[in-house]
């Protein structure tokens, strides 16, 4: 998706759409039958390539990547 499209969504905030969007994310995570260890590996791999990875994790669960790793031990 192009940045302009995302910016348009942010500029025209529709609370109902945002609720449905997050609900869709959660539903798709729960419906995905990929093993957790494979999902975790891909998330950590993607985090290596993104200096703002914490922003993603904080947005979806309220915790930084470092905090989530600490909680996992």
Structure description:
The chain is mainly alpha-helical. The chain has 2 domains: 1-33; 34-73, no CATH class. Helices cover 77% and strands 0% of the residues. The protein contains 5 helices and no strands. The longest helix has 17 residues, at 15-31. The chain starts with a helix and ends with a helix.
Instruction: Label the structural class.
Output: mainly alpha
Please outline the major beta sheet: none
Helix content: over 70%
* Number of extended strands: 0
Radius of gyration, in Å, reads 14 Å
Shape: globular
Task: Calculate the mean pLDDT score and round it.
Answer: 94
Terminal-residue CA separation: 35 Å
Give the secondary structure arrangement, pairings included.
Layout: H1 3-11, H2 15-31, H3 36-48, H4 53-61, H5 65-72
Features:
73 residues, 0% strand, globular, 2 domains
In short:
This protein has helices at 3-11, 15-31, 36-48, 53-61, 65-72. With 73 residues, it is mostly helical.
């Amino acid at each position: 998706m192009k940045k302009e499209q995302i910016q348009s969504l942010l500029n025209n905030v529709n609370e109902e759409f945002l609720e449905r969007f997050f609900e869709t994310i959660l539903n798709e995570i729960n419906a995905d039958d990929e093993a957790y260890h494979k999902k975790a590996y891909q998330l950590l791999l993607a985090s290596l390539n993104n200096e703002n990875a914490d922003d993603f994790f904080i947005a979806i669960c309220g915790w930084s990547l470092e905090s989530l790793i600490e909680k996992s031990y």
